[in-house]
Fold this protein.
Amino acid sequence: MGIDHEIRESQIKEARIEGATLEEIGRIHGITRERVRQILKSSGNEVSSEEAKKKRYTSRSKALNESIAEFLDEYRDVIADLANDGALRSDVEERFQILAPNIPYEVVRQAVESSAELFDHRNTQEYRFPDSVVESAVWYTLGRSLKLDPIRQSAVRDINLEEAREVSNTLAEEGFSADRIAEILATVISTREHHRNNPDVALTSKCYTNCRDEILKEFGNESRKGAWPWPPTNQTVMKRLGGGYWADAMRRVGISPGDKGRQRGQIIFQVEDYYNSVSGFLKHASEDNLDTTFTGYKKWVIAEERAGRRRPSSDAVRKQFNSWTNAKRAVASSVKADLRSVKRTGSARFNPGGKDALNRSQVELTRFMRQVKTLPTTEASDACLKFISEFCQEFEVSRRNWLRAMIYADCPDSISRQLSARDEGIKLKLTNKQIHELRKPEPDLDTILSSNYLDGLLNQADPRNTDGWLRKSAQDELDAISVEDLKRFRILRYMRNAFVHKSPDARLERAISDLSDDDPGFELKQSATLRVVGDWLRSRNFSRFDKLCQSVPNIWRAMVVSEIRLSDELAG
């Protein structure tokens, strides 16, 4: 062998050991990837693809972590100030993208995440309907409460075409039929005419809510957790049209709000009462291992009132502090320190990555929704299926890493739970060989928690399945994922399988049929071929596609709460 060949062989070996791919090495030396493989094999230094991949991952992770540490050294105080001022996390990241374009986005994103600051969040679902559509909901609900009949002749004469187009298009995207939309618009116009002749007609918040419930039942679209059907809730009406006040919302629409309810300026609680109430709730949640959500506080207030202790309502607290996050931040500033203090053996920081994955899924979905609407019809259907395949694949990988981190963080308790379950005869997914390894003084968890094993837990398309590894408090958050999101996620999983194997199976049709029993808007009246499914996703302005994909961020939200529950217990 000549000296040049020896040098080349040495360089190839070194590059492969450092994690370079066969293709990268071949491109550098002007040879095929198969020739690179032959050289490595003949030299007795063949490195497997898996080993090279691990080396690349380790090298990139090390470089990324160093960049994140440098970034936080320079900007940690700035991030903290922005968080305390009520900035959204996405806004903070965007500031750095604009003013520090040379810093990779991944560094900024992970640095902001690992800063452990509490950022505000905006419920974008509350803004999914244009103002005109929210106002039409008020008029329609008022008309229904008065049992007014829609008068088509008057509607044709008095209709505002611009407003009608916006309302009609929006409701069509929500799955309303043309006949139903016509009935709604005619009722809105008839109600306005009735109100002009009877200006004293009023609509209270309670009346709106009660009538809305009846309307949703009639539409077959009952309000559920995580769902935002039309007509919107009274809370959305107040926020969108009245700055948080029902009376102001009604005045903007031109309707009397009624004479019930507290008038603005009537003070029931002092400022310290709000602090004491939130503080009391946080203490109660910590002692009883409850989640510290806005809904959790609302339930606690009800329980307190039953015990004879009056507390500021959840809505009053949110108004006082502008957001629930601000309320917790104001009275529990030590939470950040607690979260940062969470340690586990072999890990500098407990960070399963749920919040990061949640943010990434939302960003990717929003970006795709903007892009796909610009594509030709023939391309849009295929693009939807391809996105779902990649979206689900990323979820599987991120969930795999998340579950590993949760299990590692809770060692040795997580191991003890598995062994106890096996001893009690509870059937889990671990093989006898894996259980044998688990019983060793220092078990090799990397081998036990293989990708095949963790991915196998998703075979039934159920993201709640953790095979008994998690604590009850953390598992309870996953078990609380809504049935609707589970059904939608199951469809995504089977669509992904259909796209990969180029052939849908009966499970996909059954999953779609199961969801359509609850929501007729998802009915599929043809055989589920790839072409039919793609067109089905694209139709109705991609509303089905969007609703199905939203199940992934919703599942991540439950997983984020699950990791917070675990971190709180580990810190305690």
In short: Residues 2-115 form one domain. The chain has a mean pLDDT of 81.
